[in-house]
Structure formats: structure tokens, C-alpha cells
Amino acid sequence: MTNSNNMVIRPATPDDAERLAAIYAPYVTGMAITFEYVAPTVEEFRGRIVNTLRKYPYLVAEADGELLGYAYASAFKGRAAYDWAVETSIYLRQGESGRGLGRLLHDALQEKLQEMGILNMCACITAPRGEDPYVTENSIQFHDHLGYRMVGRFEQCGYKFGRWYDMVWMEKHIGPHPDQVEPVRFGLQAGGTSTPKKSLIVYGSRYGTAKRYAERLSAKTGIQAVDYQEVKTLEDYDRILYMGSLYAGQVTGLKKTVGKLLPQQELVVVTVGLVDTADPENMARIRSGLKELIPAANYNENRVFHLRGAIDYSHMKVKHRLMMSVVHAKIAKMPEAERNAECRVVFETYGKTVDYVDFEALKPVVKAIKTGLFI
To answer: What's the pTM value of the predicted model, to 2 decimals?
Structure first.
């Protein structure tokens, strides 16, 4: 297993063929995950990469010069009416499973497919008929966790290693299905690039902290930043970067902004609050609230970021100070063991002026915007 903070997900090239073929070979020779009998040669694998890239994304995960896995899309069926659906494939190097790499590859692939206008992601998966030494139900469970649903099962349709296997189809919708649909933009990844997205930074800031972050992000990316209250429509933009302060469990202005989104638009959310962003309980609570508020067509957990903010009681409006006084009194009566991260930080900072703003924490957001890969 490779442990590295330098992992990137990038478009594959024909030069990756030898290493990707080596990743794939054990799946052919020792597993029933693929129904191929003979592992492809390097030249054959290179041809597959080239053919895929003519129309579809092909991504690899790389860390410190090593390839850890890959994911790609292919035609679901050859007829024109199937253009908006694809079949997806993900393979990891042996020993790399179980740490979220498969999900990162899948979500990066989904991003690219949505850019193209693909609406359905389909997965053809081997299903064991009971205990089996060559395949498990892990892939089925993996896709279930990613939001796929089971749509069909074919019994005893594959024969490998002297035994029969079932095959199932699972499907995930990644966009709306209107009566009039735009043509798919095939070949966007050719050469590893796609059309730049037209973006807008929108912020909701009660006392200026989210605005500070938004203005710094604007300076680093060249993307215009505007207050959510000034936004009339978002229809001219492909990507909305929303930065909002957390207040009373809500992200300031986000609900109003979400109401202006179109299903095909990409939404990036950056929350700004006092609680330590390394606290998993608090981050899970914030993301759960975002998932309930944001339409499924626009929500992607990989496009959610959290930053630490600031508070200055001397500048608070009277009604907000009164509210915080009530909250503080309530927390004071709670046993310390029952206080979650949010309660603790409210209690510790009550009546004070604290500033946790860290512009360096914007680096992952800037990198994701510039590369187009939110992983």
C-alpha cells in the first residue's frame, strides 16, 4: 500500500499502458472480476487507451511516480440513442483497496462525464453464486455506497475457472433527463483538457469573515466574487463557488442561492466556522445538513470544503449577542462529556475576539478549481 500526500488523479496517456496492463493482469489471471481469459499485451492495452480517449475519459491515480489505479468509461451500447449512458470500469493495484482510492477515481470520472453531458453511469459486475475464491460481492457493495441501484441480474452467463457466474447491472443517474436533451460532448478529454468552466464566487458573510476568504480566493483565481444578496440569476455560469459563514447551524445565504441553481450547474461549497475542521463529528454534521439542503443533481461531497473563521462579540448586533448569551447559558448547564465540538468552541470563545482565519487553507480549493479535479 502506498501512503502519500502527493497523489493526483490525471488523464491517462498511451505511455501509461505498461503499468496499467500490470495492474489489470491479476484480475484476468486470478479473479473472476473480469471475464477475460488472457491478459492483454502492453501494445493491446495501449490501443485500448487510445480508443477510449477518442470519446471518453480515462483517468489514473498517481503518487510519487507510481500508478495506483485507473478508471474509464466506455459506450453502454453502440446505437446513437444510448449516447447519454456509459459503462464504467475501475481497477486498483493489488494492496491499494480499502482506503478510499476507488471512490476518488469514481468521483473524478463522474465529474468528467457530467461535463460531457452523460446522464447515466452503468456498471456490469460479476456476482458470485455463494462463497467463491475468485470473486466477492465487494464491488456490488462499493457501487451501492456510491448511489447506484440494482437494475438487473443475468444468471450463469459467465464461465471462468471451471464454474458459472452471474452478472448484474447497476445504474446511477448523474443528471436530469429532460424531454429535449443536449448532444453529448464526446472527446472533451482529448489531450487531457476540456473547455474551461465559467465560474462565479458567491459569498454569504454576517460579519465579514467569509467575505475575506471569498476576496482572497477571487484574487488567487481571477474569478469574480459577489455577495449572495446581489445575485439575481446564475444561469450564465457553469460552476458556482459558494462561501458562507456557519451561523445557528445554517450556511448564510446558501438556501437562497441553491434556489437559483440549474440541475446541470456544478456547485462548490466552502463553509466558514469556528470549529476545528479536523473534528470528524462536526464535519459529518455539516455535510449531512448540506446534503439535505442541496439538490442531488448539484451535490457532490468532494466539492465541499471547510475553513475556520473568526468572531468578535464587540461588533455583534444586540439580537445576536442575546442569542449567544442564551446558548452559552444552556451549554454551561451541560456536563462537559456531553458537549460536542460546536458546543465546546461556543463556550470557550464566548464574549471574546478570536480569529482563526488561515488563507493557506484555501490551497486545496484553488488547486481543485485550476485542475477541475475535486477529489
So the answer is: 0.56
